[in-house]
Amino acid sequence: MTVVCRESYSSQSVPLSYRRNQDGTIEVSKEESNHAFSSLAQTFRTVFLPQGYPESVSEDYLAYQIWDTIQAFCSSITGTLATQAMLKGVGVGDVTATAAAATITWLLKDGTGMCGRIVFAWYQGSSLDCDAKRWRLFADILNDAAICIELISPLFPYYFTAIACVSGVLKSIVGVAGGATRAALTLHQARRNNMADVSAKDGSQETLVNLAALVVGLLITPMVSGNPLLTWFLFFLFTFFHLYANYRAVTCVVMNTLNQARLHIILKEYLTTGFLHILSPAEANAREPVLRRLPRPLEVNLGAQFGQLCKKWSDMEQCASSSSNEKYWLGLDRRTGFINILLHHDCTSQDIIKACFQAEIIIINTENEGVISQYFYSRGDDPDRYTKGDQLPADASWKVVRLSGLMAESLYPNFALELRNTGWVIGHTLLGTNEWRAEWSMSGIPEGKSFKSL
Known about the structure:
- By secondary structure, this protein is mainly α.
- 58% of the residues lie in helices and 9% in strands.
- It has helices spanning 35-48, 61-89, 99-124, 132-152, 160-189, 195-224, 228-251, 260-272, 281-287, 306-309, 313-322, 349-367, 371-378, 396-422, and strands at residues 2-7, 16-20, 26-30, 257-259, 299-302, 328-333, 338-343, 425-430.
- Strands 1-2-3 form a 3-stranded antiparallel beta sheet, with no helix packed on it. It has a 3-stranded mixed beta sheet with strand order 5-7-6.
- α2 packs parallel to α4 (132-152).
- The protein is flat and about 80 Å long.
- The protein starts with a strand and ends in a 24-residue tail after the last strand.
């Protein structure tokens, strides 16, 4: 028989061979393998892994999902312990407790949680995409804190309602931060426009883990009932594994889009190595902090209002004379510690990255004074000759803005090209851009003109 075709469902499946018989018929057969094991493994992949795995997801998918599964199991166990404590707190087993009192307590807990969810989503919603890994870890730390509060709530019966409300607020924040960052990580993992499939299979994995935790919970609940020492021992044990697994999960994620922290890490390496080395996504992600924000001497206000940058006509003249780009203006306010970037309404993602590129040059020059001057001297140029114009004031901040702009104009094209070649995606970013956009003109803009008519 002659093999006329060989196919596979994915790289992990057992290939099928199609053979032509002498009578002209074609029969199909599986290549040699442990049939029972391969069938079981294929069934598991089909049910719990995205279609086309592993080609259809990012390379960090499996490592992240393993650690995420461990943390979900630990969280479910500690949640079981907290549920028992909360039921005891509302009066389960107490003959003097009433259903009405328990209902009111539960309604107050849910109500304050809903309010907390709305406030947190309003206050931090836009930053969850930009620092998904840090917020993901923050959510799980906060979840453990809420569970700890619920465990101690029966010890303070007179304050149980207030404690329950605090726990409700914390868990509502966990819900917002955890859900939003899960969506951001799912978008990162989906490589074939299969975000829905990746999300659905993640839900199946979590359900399976919760079922396993439910079985374990049924076994340990009678053991911990009336035994506070064992309860707290199990809580601290599973909390430790929960936090450790979460830390390992977020640190194994390799995001290939730029946020403020990753851009700062990349550019600092690029400038300090003499413009020779661009960190790969894996290298930059390994250096990105997930427990705290990256410490920087200045903060970038990307998409600032015009009034934050120009409070008088002379400020506008300084912006115009210091800027070398028509799609954004940049100003340094050392008093507030902000670099304010005014974006034109026609600016593209490339203009935004370039604006942040210039801002990071200023930040790195603040950390390592002389970086900008060294760049010009390395080219055999004198930086002072660019800051002697009549329109440029003597303020050192505007001199830094002018020189950093010239430096960005020279370095950015090659920097962007090397970013792409190293594996970074710069078609879209997670730089935390505000929505303010402006149209400016030194000669004045006619009244009543809209962006579309300009």
